[in-house]
Amino acid sequence: xxxxxxxxxxxxxxxxxxxxxxxxxxxxxxxxxxxxxxxxxxxxxxxxxxxxxxxxxxxxxxxxxxxxxxxxxxxxxxxxxxxxxxxxxxxxxxxxxxxxxxxxxxxxxxxxxxxxxxxxxxxxxxxxxxxxxxxxxxxxxxxxxxxxxxxxxxxxxxxxxxxxxxxxxxxxxxxxxxxxxxxxxxxxxxxxxxxxxxxxxxxxxxxxxxxxxxxxxxxxxxxxxxxxxxxxxxxxxxxxxxxxxxxxxxxxxxxxxxxxxxxxxxxxxxxxxxxxxxxxxxxxxxxxxxxxxxxxxxxxxxxxxxxxxxxxxxxxxxxxxxxxxxxxxxxxxxxxxxxxxxxxxxxxxxxxxxxxxxxxxxxxxxxxxxxxxxxxxxxxxxxxxxxxxxxxxxxxxxxxxxxxx
Length: 405
Ligand SMILES: *Cc1c(COP(=O)(O)O)cnc(C)c1O
Description:
The chain has helices at 82-88, 107-121, 133-145, 160-168, 180-192, 206-210, 212-220, 237-252, 271-277, 304-313, 323-337, 343-357, 379-383, 396-404, and strands at 4-8, 30-34, 78-80, 92-97, 125-129, 148-154, 172-176, 197-198, 228-232, 260-266, 317-321, 366-371. It contains 14 helices and 12 strands.
């Protein structure tokens, strides 16, 4: 572990109180500032004795590993997606399949660090608002840490698998009469009353764990930095974390090239993409976001401004994709690579396709798509968009007739 400070992302003020989630001086978001001096003396191979996963990168993490609450998160595969690359027409495409985390999404990377931090603080109750995957992940890590857990979900808007997980791990599942942004407001109020340690996207420790997806990609590519990394953007915590990881690797001298960070939003929930198209540093919230990709159905992204900074600073890009493009990309991943992702995750591949056709992405690029969540989270999205099972009699003749038609 490195020593660190929690500072305001806007005004730089130091914030000491772990139950304060916004800068007391200016209201800005908080961020962890790592002291990486000792890492500068290390090389990537010095970390290799730990298995691939979040805690391999403990020197970049702000929590002492002795407090670690882990279910062996991270260490997900990076597929060399040759058939996908050929289909979309790019020279090299890799798929980082974060749906193979313990609870089926990348949220576990942040949650292992966030809940370890809660343990370090001696917290007894943790909570979050969620479009689904954050609550599934927090519920699992709270169970592992023997902490009470409250999750605030927008009623009726959570995919079946995610809801099942939160219930299964024994969290108090609160169905809020409102959308995600309203559920978050309620969770924040409870945190301000110090009734729970809040593990939403405004928690500065979660992105620290989420940096590990970028560290792993670099390890898996032998530090041969790709031209571009594409990922879906909802609350924009993940792209912010990936950006921070890139900057930290540059700071310690482990990379000398910066990948273009490229965020993809759903057409029905596009505040960051709209701001990017207008060249703005801030975004206008979307009142009623709507998309099949429930994990990115977010109108007022907590880290939206940081996402914009990440894309501008790395020469990246941002666009939207329609639900139809998302479903097509989801199928394409299944058909070409045998990978089943949830709709939000397919947005990265849909975005790759679209930006290639627009000429924003060059055919010669080496691209990594981060696929954030497992397709089994949301079976309804797949079943509703697939041909139904074929009714069949009960004889070999019936089967032969069907297979030859
Ligand atoms: C949370 C989530 C996202 C969005 O990530 P942000 O950090 O909110 O931008 C995308 N895909 C999946 C599967 C998620 O669970």
